[in-house]
Structures are given as C-alpha cells and as structure tokens.
C-alpha cells in the first residue's frame, strides 16, 4: 500500500490544474452553447415578422451565459489564488466570449423591439389606408 503525500505545494498544484481544467471545460461548453452561425444568417419565413421572430429566437444565448459565468467564476478564483502560471489564453478567451454574448444579447433585444414594433406599424399604416379610402369614397 503506497502512502499518499499531503504536501501543500503538491495539493495546491493539483487544485490549480483542476481549476484550469474546469475553466477550460466551461469555456468549451459555452462556445458549444452559442447560436449556430447559419441559424442567424439564414432565416426562412413568409413575411418580415416571421423573419424577425426566427432571428429573435436564433439570437438567444441559452446556456452559453451560464457556462461563461462558471468559467469566469473559477478563473477569478484561480487568479486571485495565484494558481495559474500563465492564464493569458484563458483571459483572452473569456473576454472574447463575453463580447460575443453581450453582442448577442444586444441584438436579441433590438430584434425583440422590432418584433413588437412591426405589427404596431402595420396596424397604424392600415388605419391610415382605411381613413384615406373612407375620405375618397365620401
């Protein structure tokens, strides 16, 4: 039976490796959870509202935000504990994913606004057309 060493430096090194692995895993899962490029770029619908609804749905960040948050949480923990010898790659990837998620959320909100506005505009334009038709018939 071998004896397990409980050397603080060795345990800290193992913990640091586990933290880095957790961060990398969460980042990979966040990347996988991002919307598919084709679902944003190629949208099929019968009318503009259908296009906007499809685009709105495809811009949802889903679980990407949760996984990015987990990655950032463990990264922050490891950084504060000085557990990483070199974490520039993790920092850069977190920044990149944060930018993408923020842009997706902004676009999702903007498309949502348009989705609500287009039917209102249609109704207003239809009422103007109806008013004009009534005036012409009088």
Describe the structure.
- The chain has one domain (8-137).
- It is 79% helix and 0% strand.
- The protein has helices at residues 8-33, 37-41, 48-58, 64-80, 88-137.
- The relative contact order is 0.13.
- The mean pLDDT is 91.
Spatial extent as radius of gyration: 25 Å
Distance between the termini: 103 Å
Mean of pLDDT: 91
Q: Using DSSP, what is the number of strands?
A: 0
Beta-strand residue percentage: under 5%
The shape is rod-shaped
The percent range for helix content is over 70%
Low-confidence stretches: none
Keywords: Coiled coil
Protein name: DUF5790 family protein
Task: Lay out the secondary structure.
Blueprint: H1 8-33, H2 37-41, H3 48-58, H4 64-80, H5 88-137
Helix pairs in contact: 1-4, 1-5, 3-5, 4-5
List keywords for this structure.
single chain, 138 residues, mainly alpha, coiled coil, DUF5790, DUF5790 family protein
């Amino acid at each position: 039976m071998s004896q397990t060493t409980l050397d603080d430096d060795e345990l800290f090194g193992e913990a640091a490796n586990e933290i880095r692995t957790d961060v990398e895993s969460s980042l990979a899962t966040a990347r996988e959870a991002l919307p598919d490029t084709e679902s944003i770029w190629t949208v099929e619908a019968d009318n503009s509202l259908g296009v906007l609804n499809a685009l709105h749905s495809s811009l949802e960040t889903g679980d990407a935000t949760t996984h990015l948050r987990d990655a950032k949480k463990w990264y922050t923990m490891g950084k504060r504990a000085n557990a990483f010898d070199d974490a520039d790659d993790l920092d850069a990837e977190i920044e990149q994913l944060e930018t993408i998620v923020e842009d997706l959320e902004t676009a999702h909100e903007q498309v949502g606004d348009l989705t609500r506005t287009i039917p209102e505009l249609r109704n207003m334009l239809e009422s103007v057309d109806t008013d004009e038709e009534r005036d012409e018939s009088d």
